[in-house]
Write a structure and sequence with these properties.
By secondary structure, this protein is α/β, with parallel strands linked by helices. Helix content is 30%, strand content 23%. The chain has a 7-stranded mixed β-sheet with strand order 14-15-16-13-12-17-18, with helices on both faces. Strands 22, 23, 24, 25, 26, 27 and 28 form a 7-stranded mixed β-sheet that branches. A 5-stranded parallel β-sheet has the order 9-8-7-10-11, with helices on both faces. The radius of gyration is 30 Å and the shape is globular. The relative contact order is 0.10. The structure holds NADP nicotinamide-adenine-dinucleotide phosphate (NAP). The site of NADP nicotinamide-adenine-dinucleotide phosphate (NAP) has 28 residues, from helix 7. NADP nicotinamide-adenine-dinucleotide phosphate binds next to helix 7.
Amino acid sequence: MKLHNYVRGEWVPHEGDGLPQYDAVTGELIATCGSEGLDYAAMMDYARRTGGPALRRMTFQQRGLMLKKLALHLYGLRKKYYPLSYRTGATKGDSWIDIDGGIGTLFAYASLRRKFPDKPYYVDGEAVSLSKEGTFIGHHIMVPKHGVVIHINAFNFPIWGMLEKLSVNLLAGMPAIVKPSEVTSYLTEAMVRDIVASKILPEGALQLVCGTGVGILEPVTSQDVVTFTGSASTGRMLKTQPGIIENSVPFNMEAASPNAAVLAEEAGTGTPTFDLVIREVQRDMTAQDGQQCNALRRLLVPATIRDNVQIPLAPRLGQTTHGHPQEEGVRMGALASRAQVEEVKRRIEELRHSSTLVYGKPDDFEVIGADRNKGAFLPPLVFRNDDPFRGQESHTVEAFGPVSTLMPYRDLEEAIQLANMGKGSLVSTVATADPGFARTYVMESAPYHGRILILNEESAPESTGHGSPMPLLTHGGPGRAGGGEEMGGVRGVKHYLQRTAIQGHPSMITAVTDVYQVGGERREADTHPFRKHFEELEVGETVTTHKHTVTEADIANFANVSGDNFYAHMDATSLEGTIFEQRVAHGYFVLSKAAGLFVDPKKGPVLLNYGLEECRFTKPVYPGMTIGVKLTVKEKVNQEKKDEDDIAKGIVKWLVDVYDETGETVAIATILTMVKKRDQSEKPAV
Ligand code: NAP
């Protein structure tokens, strides 16, 4: 079978003989793939002309809903990818991480739409005052880049590797060309076929190159973004391509990572933490056959108990059933290819320079239900390096398979030094129940690791594990791990947006951002805004309320109702040494009274008040002072209907400016209400 590339809206078979792709378990030919003759410049141009503008016309909410629809669609189809996944050497558990885990990331990014406005762009942070009179302010907006994202992925995780990246750039509003590794691209291709057939993504939002992709980065331009997952040497070669450097193209690199776990001094044999570490090492070495970027490569243990660690590890690893992924009870499958087995064996020889193999034999092991000479099998292998400050290989050589090295340390300082000798990793685990040990480890080793798992009896029951990057947390690491950063919730989306500072009068910045800025023009509402439906409200629309003079009775009554008898409100004789000149009104009274002034009480389109985003009490309010409120529509956020019975509505953010008789602001807050739409005929989005 010839794999097709998905190019400019069409499935195109590769030219020539292509490269063979073999079943990792049986050695049978599955397909051929290739990328010769592909016009990458034309592909990128097509994405920039079609997918980019289509995605940029959509708001974050619409893009998020598109991801949700896609996630639901693929979730319904997920079982069909498993048989093909087994052919990559993955077991059912490994396939679940790749397939269901990948679709889970799509769901996570779909939900993340709620952290973004219902607009194609994002207003970042708060406005900055740049003038005395408030007529000149600064702000930041973030808009999707006008280019295309090229994702170059490693052979492990052919599905997750694509979806964890694609979900982020699609939410941001950029199209992508995905280039999986030629070793396992047959699985990626199967899913992309379903994505394309579903027509859920706009034309040009996704293209696929199944072959080697040599030359793919040559046509990059300044608006493009590249992500790379793979070996450090390939990454460096691609990152230094002239086009990348000349055009300052962001290049996010995830490379080899000598991840370390540290077993704390207090966690000796027989402690729950000790047992947890043994379990974690076994799980991590055998999941995905150790072909995980997060895999635990170095285990640092107190020198006094180094033998105690080795002893329970052997039977645990020995229990791991190894063989054909579809054979009943098999927990560990094959590497992705026989070439990869040879590659790992070369690395093992390098590790031998400073370490002794203490568990497993690379050429003498049993497999269940398969021929070990035909498949890409390798058993778990544990090395021991008793002199880890001299034997550098343990920290620098990555054998991308089920291989880990055990090393002793004498004290916490040494443990930190050794962990950091990896010169940058994706993840490190510190296994301890001692907060002091954990804190020192985190503070001293965080600059060298992208993620740190603190493992102990309390966190273990629900821990997602050393090996699992989570969509809402940053995935990536410094130094040898590539210096990249992916996912991370909202943070990841920002990699595909250009942040631009904008400066001007608050009215102009309001008009550009569609978010009301303090000092901007307010339009006095003809009707009270609480009488208006969501569609009828306009940013900047304001109601100025009548006034109220605060009395001592207000303060006493509020203290009674709330039970807040703080001395500054209640005792005029206690104020020496404070900033207050007399009994001060409760801040929450000022805000509550403000609500009393601005609320229009009759039943109307406002359904409920569901909280505050920001609130500051900026000036003390004393009895005798007179307060009034300006309530301004600050921002509108559309909401989709959950089901047919749901009320069509949106969120309205209001700026509440409470001022005194001098006109000075005494309290300022953003409150959120849910407001009904006039048109209730809207259909649920997904
Ligand atoms: P690799 O050989 O470096 O390849 C990575 C990707 O680059 C593949 O898609 C490869 O395509 C592509 N590539 C190679 N040369 C290229 C060129 N001239 N132009 C365009 N693309 C090119 O790595 P791998 O063997 O697939 O993966 C294993 C490595 O990945 C390990 O070192 C592992 O540590 C690392 N990894 C790191 C992470 C992480 O997040 N840090 C995650 C997973 C894996 P072909 O395969 O088609 O040649």
